[in-house]
Amino acid sequence: MALNHQRRTDKWWETEYSDNIHSYLQYHEVKWRMVYGARSPQIHLRPVLIKTIRSIAKTCEMSNVCVHLAVTLMDFFMDNHDLKFDTIMLVSFACLTLAAKIEEHCLKIPKLNTMQNVISKDVTNSHFRKVEMKILMFFEFNVAVPTVAHFIEFYKDHFFCDSDFYHNEFANILKDKFNRMILSYQDASLESIKLISYNPSMVAASIILTTRHTLGLVPCWTPQLRKVTGYLKKDLVQCCSLLGRNVMQHRKFVPMDEGYLSSSPGFQSPIIMASKKKRSHIDVPNIILSKRTAF
């Protein structure tokens, strides 16, 4: 039997196995999950680190999925280690390269020289590989973990229902607003430290729910979305509230049109519905040959 009628795609959410893959991702996100304590002494540098990751991702044309994975690895590694300033920039870059090796084509993996303006010029490839290895060993080489961006790609295909389009001429306008708003909420979710403690699938579902509410779509949580995500609307209330507050703060203080982001959409009020691993200090001599030593 000829197989040319089958749709070929590299996007798992467009395959006949998408439901099975989604179920595995939800299982894996719970099995992998670490306790996040927001206890890194360098946590105040997190916005700068995320901005650096986004900037490099834009230069190397990386995907949203890669950025989210890099930030996830960085967050949990930072939470369990005391890092010097020079090293923390190197660690963030190492997390991005590890994420790129999983999610991107080999040609998009960034090189060490792209970071030479923010780290010591004395850092060699050998030193950098040692940092990568430290990160891999901490995660026990299990760094292919689900993120918010993984689930968003799947949930987006179920965003609209037939009742959303009263006039066909407005369909394209609505879909364009949807795409821009999803990007904005998705990237704003990276800024919130409180959202790290939630399972990525729940944050992704909350982004979809908040977007539908902001666009004024009724119902804001459809039976199809409930079936696909496995979440009831009441399960997402707290996460949506945190997401909405963070978007308002983010729009007030930080421009949203940097990196791979599109222009930020207008924001309406957040929805209101119903009434470890022990942190250690790593000592790896000669990782960075400068006044500030590594780790």
Question: How would you describe the overall organization of this protein?
Answer:
With 295 residues, this protein is mainly α. Among the domains are: 32-139, Orthogonal Bundle (Cyclin A, domain 1); 148-161 and 171-243, Cyclin A, domain 1 (Orthogonal Bundle). It contains ten helices and no strands. Helix 6 packs across helix 8.
CATH class of the domain at 32-139: Mainly Alpha
Order of helices and strands: HHHHHHHHHH
Which residues form runs of ≥5 with pLDDT under 50? Answer: 1-9, 252-294
Provide the CATH superfamily of the domain at 32-139: Cyclin-like
**Percentage of helical residues?**
40-55%
Number of strands: 0
CATH architecture of the domain at 32-139: Orthogonal Bundle
The CA-CA distance between the termini, in Å, is: 59 Å
Strand content: under 5%
Rg (C-alpha, Å): 20 Å
Structural class: mainly alpha
Domain Cyclin-like: 51-137, 165-245
Pfam families: Cyclin_C, Cyclin_N
GO molecular function: cyclin-dependent protein serine/threonine kinase regulator activity
Keywords: Cell cycle, Cell division, Cyclin
